[in-house]
Amino acid sequence: MAIEKLRRLDDTKMEVPIDYKPGMRVNGVIYVDAVLEQELELQSIEQVANVAMLPGIVKSSLAMPDIHTGYGFAIGGVAAFDLQNGIISPGGVGYDIN
Amino acid sequence: MRLLRSNLTKTEVVPRIKDLVGVLQNQIPSGVGSKGKIRLDPENEKKILLKGARWAVEQGYGETEDLERTESGGRIEGADPSLISAKAYERGRAQQGTLGSGNHFIEVQYVDEIYDEAAANTLGLFKGQVTVMIHTGSRGFGHQVCTDFLEVMERAVSKYKIDLPDKELACAPYESREAQNYLAAMRAAANYAWANRQCITHWARETFMNVFGMSPKQLGMSLIYDVAHNIAKVEEHEVNKKNVKLIVHRKGATRAFPPHHPELPAIYKHLGQPVLIPGDMGRASFVLLGTERAMKETFGSTCHGAGRVMSRHQAIRKAKGRLIWREMEDRGIIVRSAGRETLAEEMSEAYKDISDVVDVVHKAGVSRKVARLRPMGVVKG
């Protein structure tokens, strides 16, 4: 569980591989370049990985370059769930609704 | 987040900026737990939860055209006022039409760089032009909805035997009563937020009319767009070459739909959805457009702002003994705040550089740059 386990996909994206943590259903993708990579908080990466473990998550657990640690889900996070097997979580929206 | 245009230029506004910021602060209630000029009876509060910005326009705050240029028309369907706690109602009653505190603000800006002339033209933006950005949300009402439903979800996690790596991820299966109730309550809060920005928009326009002695027509302060960045929505997306409905959670992320998406207002059909990205109060903000690539890669989403690099406490420590408002004024930015510590928490160094953030989403192609805006005057909560 460290930043070294992240894999750079291209100039603007890093992958949190599916084996970053046991229990991940999909990978994580964080949109950061080499500059913003330096400012990634370890806890926010953990949060991207944790969200990837939620039931019904589709494609990837995503985070935008303004990512930082939030309540459960990272701020800057995007997660889509399918309507049959997926979930809804208030932490995925946060306290400051809208 | 919402952005208003104007016919005014930077040169016309600079000599009046101190007055303007002072009157804005006067006219738009701000600060922790700030109470508004609007007194809601229970019946009207319920109407807000169902009608959102539409309620505000019906009360005379703004124009029908504003609604066309607001995500979901400023009102999302499926809100249910019967699921709101007494405590949330109580917190919401006095806070409609208030800015609040923390990172919420109203900012007078000017356009200092255009990256796409044709797009800027369609949006009604030109170089040197003054714009107004408004960032606030559902205030204590939405906060209480979140608190209430985190409790419900904690119970749901054991009821539905969901295995979680972190209890803060408390959730419920989409089709469960708990999840559907949260969604209906969250929608009510989203509508409250749209009404809030609509009321504040009206007072911002009034303030400009009074300070500059100009008519609405002369000022041309039409809404460019209003978009949410903390919301969960049911949307159609392509997964494995099939269109499926998904529940998309965006937390500190902005919807960025591509050209020709059915949810876009007619005037922006060929352009793509406007995306409004504020930076910290000292640097810049950006207007972007949604893209096809965002639809393919990020469920039609992009960034929402600069993102903190310092916690609020760290920032307060770092600002000790400094006069942040004076430092800003030396850089030509007039800042006013109701809260003693807000300016310390919100100082530039506490945030990532917004230009770095926007460059990433632009290069990645999940949105594209149209214009950069620079702050002239800021009212913080």
Helix content of chain A: 10-25%
The residue-averaged pLDDT of chain B reads: 95
Portion in strands of chain B: 15-25%
> What's the total number of strands of chain B?
13
- Alpha-carbon distance between the termini of chain B? 15 Å
> Main sheet of chain A: which strands, in order across?
1-2-3-4-5
Helix content of chain B: 25-40%
The helix/strand series of chain B, from N terminus to C terminus, equals: EHHHHHHEHEHEHHEEEEEEHEHHEHHE
Distinctive features:
heterodimer, A: 98 residues, alpha+beta, 5-stranded mixed sheet, 2 helices, 14% helix, globular, B: 8-stranded mixed sheet, two-stranded antiparallel sheet, 13 strands
Could you characterize what this model shows?
The complex is a heterodimer of chains A (98) and B (381). Chain A is built from two helices and six strands, in the order βββααβββ. Chain A has helices at residues 34-37, 42-51; strands spanning 7-10, 13-16, 27-30, 60-68, 75-82, 87-88. Chain A has a five-stranded mixed beta sheet, covered by helices on one side. The longest helix of chain A is centred in the middle third of the chain and has 10 residues, at 42-51. The N and C termini of chain A lie far apart (32 Å). In chain B, strands 1, 2, 3, 5, 9, 10, 12 and 13 form an eight-stranded mixed beta sheet that branches. Chain B has a two-stranded antiparallel sheet with strand order 6-7. In chain B, strands 8-11 form a two-stranded antiparallel ribbon. Chain B is globular and about 60 Å long.
